[in-house]
């Protein structure tokens, strides 16, 4: 690895991987509803197709289609343990930059909300190359017949979202993940005192559990940027679009 | 980790992937656990053409499991022949043969719970803990 790559990897270790490992179960509890475009991509696969879910998190996309076989991977052991329960698939701990799969062995791949955590342009291209490399090569004389991957990343253009980012804003950001401490059901309306459980009465206020905030690094993609790095990685964009604060693309290896 | 998964795994080190000896990974000091799951006959039929049969035979023999037959079963082998099965309605559901049950048991229910997976090219060992193999590489191998 070059120095820049090493720094990028070390940065992601601290500001992405270590965070997900700590927030795994809490994060997982909030991630259960598959997005429609991803659901459609998975449901349209022929029965018996074999694929990879790169950066599977808690494995929420492993529930969509039990007629295909997916080998899912994530950097976080804690998330993989959660993902593992989804039959008939399987899950392993691995890094997108060093995936443990034979080249060109998969019909399809998905990588949802993963490559926006990569901190340098060179490494983003490397990651897309690694995903493309998983896919079946196209047959000679039949461009586009190779395997297909669906990639999702967070968009810079999301002015209607809670975060409110838009064109022209900084693309490299730290995004907080707040893990709420388990407090008694005290509300904003001031009935907090009453709601405190009797077993807690003796506790000093300073011993009240505190909310914990974790910061995760994101690179927000501007319009056209995902297609651009796909091109630089040697992929061909089959279909692309914008969906609820995200840019997405279906890619296939070029002949 | 299911044995079927080993059909799609190799060494995570880039330079190993083009070396034929890096596939399949070899289980070592493995403790196995059978985790029962529902048999899905269409799934088994569809996955058949993807199996690297000779390599799977190597893995099962290294694990001390009963020998797999020298040639892979066909789709027909997975279904109880029609004359043996109850022939009431023509649309009656196909019945999984013993071959299908055996295949389901070895590929999808037999899992590596603890142990190592070893690359036949570079010798690197990947640990399996609580059924989860870990392919993260130490810094000097990245
Ligand atoms: Zn190796």
TrEMBL record, chain A:
<keyword id="KW-0808">Transferase</keyword>
<feature type="region of interest" description="Disordered">
    <location>
        <begin position="181"/>
        <end position="209"/>
    </location>
</feature>
<feature type="domain" description="Methyltransferase type 11">
    <location>
        <begin position="53"/>
        <end position="132"/>
    </location>
</feature>
<dbReference type="GO" id="GO:0106335">
    <property type="term" value="F:tRNA (5-carboxymethyluridine(34)-5-O)-methyltransferase activity"/>
</dbReference>
<dbReference type="InterPro" id="IPR013216">
    <property type="entry name" value="Methyltransf_11"/>
</dbReference>
<feature type="compositionally biased region" description="Polar residues">
    <location>
        <begin position="196"/>
        <end position="208"/>
    </location>
</feature>
<dbReference type="GO" id="GO:0005737">
    <property type="term" value="C:cytoplasm"/>
</dbReference>
<dbReference type="InterPro" id="IPR029063">
    <property type="entry name" value="SAM-dependent_MTases_sf"/>
</dbReference>
<dbReference type="GO" id="GO:0002098">
    <property type="term" value="P:tRNA wobble uridine modification"/>
</dbReference>
<dbReference type="GO" id="GO:0000049">
    <property type="term" value="F:tRNA binding"/>
</dbReference>
<dbReference type="InterPro" id="IPR051422">
    <property type="entry name" value="AlkB_tRNA_MeTrf/Diox"/>
</dbReference>
<dbReference type="GO" id="GO:0030488">
    <property type="term" value="P:tRNA methylation"/>
</dbReference>
<dbReference type="GO" id="GO:0008757">
    <property type="term" value="F:S-adenosylmethionine-dependent methyltransferase activity"/>
</dbReference>
<dbReference type="GO" id="GO:0005634">
    <property type="term" value="C:nucleus"/>
</dbReference>
<keyword id="KW-0489">Methyltransferase</keyword>
<protein>
    <submittedName>
        <fullName>Uracil-5--methyltransferase TRM9</fullName>
    </submittedName>
</protein>
<dbReference type="Pfam" id="PF08241">
    <property type="entry name" value="Methyltransf_11"/>
</dbReference>
Automatic annotation (TrEMBL), chain B:
<dbReference type="InterPro" id="IPR005651">
    <property type="entry name" value="Trm112-like"/>
</dbReference>
<protein>
    <submittedName>
        <fullName>Trm112p-domain-containing protein</fullName>
    </submittedName>
</protein>
<comment type="similarity">
    <text>Belongs to the TRM112 family.</text>
</comment>
<dbReference type="GO" id="GO:0046982">
    <property type="term" value="F:protein heterodimerization activity"/>
</dbReference>
<dbReference type="Pfam" id="PF03966">
    <property type="entry name" value="Trm112p"/>
</dbReference>
<dbReference type="GO" id="GO:0030488">
    <property type="term" value="P:tRNA methylation"/>
</dbReference>
<dbReference type="GO" id="GO:0070476">
    <property type="term" value="P:rRNA (guanine-N7)-methylation"/>
</dbReference>
<dbReference type="InterPro" id="IPR039127">
    <property type="entry name" value="Trm112"/>
</dbReference>
């Amino acid at each position: 690895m070059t120095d820049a790559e090493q720094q990028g990897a070390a940065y992601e270790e601290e500001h992405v991987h270590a965070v997900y490992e700590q927030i795994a179960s809490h994060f997982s509890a909030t991630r259960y509803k598959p997005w429609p475009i991803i659901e459609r991509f998975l449901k349209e696969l022929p029965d018996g197709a074999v694929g990879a879910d790169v950066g599977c998190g808690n494995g929420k996309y492993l529930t969509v289609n039990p007629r295909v076989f997916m080998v899912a991977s994530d950097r976080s052991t804690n998330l993989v343990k959660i993902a593992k329960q989804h039959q008939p698939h399987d899950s392993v701990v691995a890094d997108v930059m060093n995936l443990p799969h034979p080249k060109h062995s998969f019909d399809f791949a998905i990588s949802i909300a993963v490559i926006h955590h990569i901190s340098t342009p060179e490494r983003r291209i490397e990651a897309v190359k690694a995903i493309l490399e998983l896919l079946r090569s196209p047959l000679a004389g039949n461009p586009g017949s190779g395997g297909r991957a669906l990639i999702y990343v967070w968009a810079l253009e999301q002015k209607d979202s809670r975060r409110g980012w838009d064109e022209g804003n900084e693309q490299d950001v730290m995004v907080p993940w707040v893990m709420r401490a388990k407090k008694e059901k005290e509300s904003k309306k001031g009935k907090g005192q009453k709601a405190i459980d009797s077993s807690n009465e003796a506790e000093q206020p300073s011993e009240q559990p505190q909310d914990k905030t974790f910061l995760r690094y994101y690179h927000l993609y501007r319009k056209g940027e995902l297609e651009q790095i796909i091109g630089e990685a040697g992929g061909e964009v089959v279909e692309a679009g914008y969906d609820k604060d995200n840019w997405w693309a279906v890619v296939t290896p070029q002949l | 980790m299911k044995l079927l998964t080993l059909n799609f795994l190799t060494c995570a080190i880039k330079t190993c992937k083009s070396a034929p000896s890096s596939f399949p990974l070899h289980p070592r000091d493995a403790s196995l656990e059978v985790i029962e799951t529902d048999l899905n006959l269409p799934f088994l039929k569809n996955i058949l053409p993807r199996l690297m049969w000779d390599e799977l035979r190597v893995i099962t023999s290294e694990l001390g499991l009963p020998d797999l037959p020298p040639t892979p079963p066909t789709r027909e082998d997975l279904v109880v022949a029609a004359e043996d099965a109850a022939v009431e309605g023509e649309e009656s559901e196909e019945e999984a043969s013993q071959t299908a049950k055996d295949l389901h048991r070895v590929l999808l229910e037999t899992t590596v719970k603890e142990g190592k997976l070893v690359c036949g090219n570079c010798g690197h060992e990947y640990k399996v803990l609580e059924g989860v193999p870990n392919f993260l590489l130490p810094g000097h191998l990245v």
